[in-house]
Amino acid sequence: MNPSDLFLNFLNTPVLFFFMGMIAIAIRSNLEIPQPLPKFFSLYLLFSIGIKGGMELSKSGFGEGVSGILILAVAMSSVIPFYTFFILRKKYSISDAAALAATYGSVSAVTFITAIAFLQSNHIPFGGHMVAAMALMESPAIITAVVLYKLYNKDDSNKTTLFHTIKDAFTEGSIVMIIGSLVIGLIVGEKGYESVKPFAGDMFKGILCLFLLDMGIVAARRLKDLKAAGAFSILFALLVPITNAGIGILLAKIFHMGQGDALMFTVLCASASYIAVPAAMRVAIPHSNPGIYVPMSLAITFPFNVIIGIPVYNYLVQMFI
Amino acid sequence: MNPSDLFLNFLNTPVLFFFMGMIAIAIRSNLEIPQPLPKFFSLYLLFSIGIKGGMELSKSGFGEGVSGILILAVAMSSVIPFYTFFILRKKYSISDAAALAATYGSVSAVTFITAIAFLQSNHIPFGGHMVAAMALMESPAIITAVVLYKLYNKDDSNKTTLFHTIKDAFTEGSIVMIIGSLVIGLIVGEKGYESVKPFAGDMFKGILCLFLLDMGIVAARRLKDLKAAGAFSILFALLVPITNAGIGILLAKIFHMGQGDALMFTVLCASASYIAVPAAMRVAIPHSNPGIYVPMSLAITFPFNVIIGIPVYNYLVQMFI
Amino acid sequence: MNPSDLFLNFLNTPVLFFFMGMIAIAIRSNLEIPQPLPKFFSLYLLFSIGIKGGMELSKSGFGEGVSGILILAVAMSSVIPFYTFFILRKKYSISDAAALAATYGSVSAVTFITAIAFLQSNHIPFGGHMVAAMALMESPAIITAVVLYKLYNKDDSNKTTLFHTIKDAFTEGSIVMIIGSLVIGLIVGEKGYESVKPFAGDMFKGILCLFLLDMGIVAARRLKDLKAAGAFSILFALLVPITNAGIGILLAKIFHMGQGDALMFTVLCASASYIAVPAAMRVAIPHSNPGIYVPMSLAITFPFNVIIGIPVYNYLVQMFI
Amino acid sequence: MKNLQKIEVITEKRSIDIVIEMIEKHGVTGYTLIPNVTGKGKRGIKHGDDLNDVFINSMLITVCEETVAEEIVKEIKVFLQDVSGVCFVTDVKYVLH
Amino acid sequence: MKNLQKIEVITEKRSIDIVIEMIEKHGVTGYTLIPNVTGKGKRGIKHGDDLNDVFINSMLITVCEETVAEEIVKEIKVFLQDVSGVCFVTDVKYVLH
Amino acid sequence: MKNLQKIEVITEKRSIDIVIEMIEKHGVTGYTLIPNVTGKGKRGIKHGDDLNDVFINSMLITVCEETVAEEIVKEIKVFLQDVSGVCFVTDVKYVLH
Ligand SMILES: Nc1ncnc2c1ncn2[C@@H]1O[C@H](COP(=O)(O)O)[C@@H](O)[C@H]1O
Ligand SMILES: Nc1ncnc2c1ncn2[C@@H]1O[C@H](COP(=O)(O)O)[C@@H](O)[C@H]1O
Ligand SMILES: Nc1ncnc2c1ncn2[C@@H]1O[C@H](COP(=O)(O)O)[C@@H](O)[C@H]1O
Ligand code: NA
Ligand code: NA
Ligand code: NA
Question: What is the value of ipTM here, to two decimals?
Answer without folding.
Answer: 0.89
